[in-house]
Amino acid sequence: MFPETTTGIQNSNIVIEDRHPTNTSDHTLVTANIPMKIDKTSTQLVKIYTRPNWAKCDTNIYTSTLKQELECESRRKESSVEERIKLLEKSIHKAGKKSIPKYRQLKSLKTVGKGIWNRKISEASRDSKNAHTLWKRKINSHQNADTEKINLTSKKRKLRQLQRQAYASKKEKYINDIMQASQKDSKTFHKLVKQQRSKHDTNTDILYIGNKAFEGEKILSAWQTHFETLGTPNFDENIFDLERLELAKLQNKIIPELDIQNKEITKATPTEIESAIRKLNTGKASDENGIVSEHYIHAIDVITDEITDIINQIFEELDVPQSLKNGILTPVLKKKKDKTIPGNYRGIVVTSIFSKIFETIIKDRLEPELFPSQNTLQRGFTEGASSLFTAFIVSETTMLYKFLKIVLELLTLDAEKAFDTVTHEIMLNKMFHDGIRGDMWVLLKNIYTNMTLQVKWGDQTTQHVNIQQGIRQGAKLSTLLYKRYNNTILNSITGSHLGAKIGTICVASPTCADDIALLGEPQDIQAMLNIIEFHTKRDMVKINPEKSEVLCTSKGKNYQQKAYTLGEKQINRVDKLKHLGITRNVKSKVNTDERLKTGRQTIYALLGSGLHARTGMCPLVLCKIWKTYVVPRYLYGLEVQICTKADIYELEKLQRKIFRQFLSLPERTASSALYILLGAEPVETILDRNMLSLFLTISRLDNAIEKKILQWELEIGKDFTESFINRIDKILNKYSLPNPKEILENPPSKYKWKNMLKKAINIYWSNIWKEECLIKTTIKYLTIQENPTENPHNIWKAARNNQNDIRKAEFKSRLITGTYMLQTTKAKFSKNQISGICELCTRAEEDIKHFLLDCESLESVRLKQMNKLLSLTELKGGGDKANYKEEDVLQIIMDCSKLSTTSLSHLKANDLIEIEKQSQNFCHQMHKERTKMQTR
Fold first, then answer.
1. Which Pfam families match (predicted)?
2. What is the reported pTM?
3. Among residues 187, 319, 202, 197, which one has the least CA distance to residue 265?
4. pLDDT by residue (tens digit) across 371-413?
5. Terminal alpha carbon distance of the chain
6. Under 8 Å CB-to-CB from 472, ≥6 apart: which residues?
7. How many CB atoms lie within 10 A of CB 807?
8. How many C-beta atoms surround the C-beta of residue 581 within 10 A?
9. How, if at all, do strands 549-554 and 572-573 pair?
């Protein structure tokens, strides 16, 4: 409760309630009646519509109905664009209702807690209530209620037992669904795994704007106030230089009247429209009219001509309908921020699907015109580039300056609400000077005139908010327009010849979207900050000096610490900072501890107690989850940093520990066995692969600044040992691949390179693991599969996705890795204080051969299971079972796929898997019988 709502409290009556019969917890209910005066709030009925199930859509009915509807509306071409779009969407919904079962039905929300309710729990709950009534009756009449109390306790225990069983069944079903989906349905697999992620409630009951608090229904008005303020330009002369704005306004009024501007927009073609529709992302939220991308994609052949005609009408009339200017804005909380402050949210806008198609057409036409003048240091929202490219430039510059022993400062700038504060007049003026003329410029102006948004919070939306500044995060054109907006700053810094250089290549301000970093010697940094201050004031953009940071990444000789200011405020100097998700420090070392923590937290958040095979989930599925969700997070950005052997060892150590947990194997298990069984790559290879992937991506970009850096490093040669090109050279030599110069000059295709690298990695690790299998006696029976870094061992291939098979495979894994506790193992660990003689037959030492082939006490089980195994082997073409040697039989039991078992070397993979299944049954039955006899 908050002070605003607790005024008027008079007194309170606190009551400790009797324990309810269904209360199976250790807690007792306490109630308090507190009279209070608070504002009455009303609740709005939640209306949630089901998403159309496109898997059940009858495409023929959908397209034919839509075609018929479009043909019937002959008056469409005489209507306004707004009306035509509405009629189109109405026809789409009509076709959807006819072709998709239960199309957009109102969802009924399930009561919380009923997810596990069943008939048995219902009966047990009723019995518990009745027992409680009888006990209470006896207590109230002052009679002996001991019998009733015992009965009540029994009934409550039964209820709790059934509830736990229901939860366990639900969890088991969830695990089975994940395992089945991992093989057949990738989309469902990712959906199920994401359900397991911890869900943090980002909705808040209170918002603070300044010192004023907003609660209940007032939260919606708080959001409206916040985004209205954000969407209104600030004309404070003390903060911004308004001369640029006034000049832009004056020029923008003249531009439409210039004769040279009579440049019409080329008509859209059906091919363009079809391409734009295919670029739509599927599985996304519906727009405010209930339309999703699939509505257009499934009817692309029918709907393309109509959309082409509507868009050409817009191009001709230059009148953008209001429906294409509207959007639904959802506030998304930034990571680790206070959820009661509106400024800590990022406004993500969902625009109409038609608007996405329309803006894609415009974007595809503008990009080829604008790309040649884009600053080469802007790597955000650029085809073929990513944030790693910016991080690559920072890393290579740092390494070079360290090598040359020159002082280098890294300064990261924090732009305040960068997308939300773009001034429309200045943006349009910049587009004109960048070469966008004629009707296209007028069309852009009309798109950003009278733009509105509705803020969605929970199940409610605000009134339309007029947006006079800012570009919508989530709209197709926004990324392109923002790049042009801050292009002036980057060009000014590059043209000043200030800042860091690699050879003659200027790398002073590597940028990813609105994340600008400055690199330079101390004497240059302040001058670059002055340039940024000048342009941001003119462009009406705010840089927050308090959140901006500076770090010395290379101290060089005679380093003296300097202070830098932006305006009148000093930039914070730090020992480490995070830039584009990568932590950088004074010594340029990898933040290993932080990454290990990230890896552990991610896997436990996804799986929790399901991190072991014995919980019922197949290790191959667990490994897939690890590779898909965890590895990209905890190894992110290491390809552009220098990892020492110690760093790789620590990262590898975590992965091995997790794999042992997946397989339920002890710490003493050979590391190579873990990778062979799971068909997984060591961390060393993952990092090598990521580095090579980045290198190949750069080598295919002809005019990219990153490629120029690599070519310069190639010319420098081996002296600069820590350069990216020299590290790549070592990796290529390691896997016997072509040298960097060959690849840079003639990069192979993606398909060719993928196969080449995959083959090289498998050969490399296959050779290493074969040597280990020869040296280590614990894994001498273990076969290395073909393509071992991506091909799981037959032991786990043979295990179906159920708990019985997983237990058998887990036991077999212990046998083949030498971690199953036999008497000889106990004797070895106890330094012969425990005898190695078999406790069952007491005739010989109990090693693996004795246990599986010789122990007389297990003969009855052995004969039955051995006959099944060898008969199956003979049936599959493994030769006469009577001719098998003892060592061959043992190898068939342990791992029938080993090539040295010559009688089976010619069998197909499926036959070997069937034999492996039978050998797992054999080993498991032997284990059960041995355990049973030992416990007698």
1. RVT_1
2. 0.86
3. 319
4. 999 999 999 988 889 999 999 999 999 999 999 999 999 999 9
5. 63
6. 327, 329, 349, 351, 419, 451, 453, 478
7. 18
8. 11
9. parallel
Task: Tell me: pLDDT of 736 over 90.
Answer: yes
**Paired tokens of 30:** 């306490």
- Is the CB of residue 152 less than 8 Å from the CB of residue 128? yes
Place of tokens 């799981």: 792
Residues contacting 681, CB < 8 A, separation 6+: 675, 689, 761, 765, 789, 790
Task: At 595, list the tokens.
Answer: 């990454």
Contact 131, 148 (CB under 8 A): yes
CA distance 463 to 478: 23
Mind listing the pLDDT tens digit for each residue in 869-919? 888 887 876 666 667 788 888 988 999 887 555 566 677 888 889 999 999
| pLDDT (mean) for 158-167 | 90
Query: What own/partner pairs with CB < 8 Å and gap ≥ 24 does 209-215 have?
Result: 209/342, 213/2, 213/4, 215/2, 215/4, 215/5
Partners of residue 214 on adjacent β-strands: 207
Tell me which CATH code domain 374-434+469-585 carries.
3.30.70
**How many CA atoms within 13 Å lie on the side-chain side of 563?**
7
Structure tokens belonging to residue 605: 């958040």
Domain with CATH 3.30.70 in the chain: 374-434+469-585
- Residue 470 in 3-state DSSP? coil
Task: Kindly state the average pLDDT of the residues 259-283.
Answer: 88
| Backbone phi and psi for residue 351, each to the nearest 5 degrees, phi listed first | -95, 170
Q: CA neighbours within 13 Å on the CB side: how many for 48?
A: 10
Question: Residue 270's closest CA among 306, 295, 294, 231?
Answer: 306
Three-state DSSP class for 407? coil
Contact 618, 799 (CB under 8 A): yes
Listed as own residue / partner, the contacts of 773-778 with beta carbons closer than 8 Å and 24 or more positions apart are 773/672, 776/670, 776/672, 777/818, 778/670, 778/673, 778/817, 778/818, 778/819
Q: What does the pLDDT average to over 286-311?
A: 93
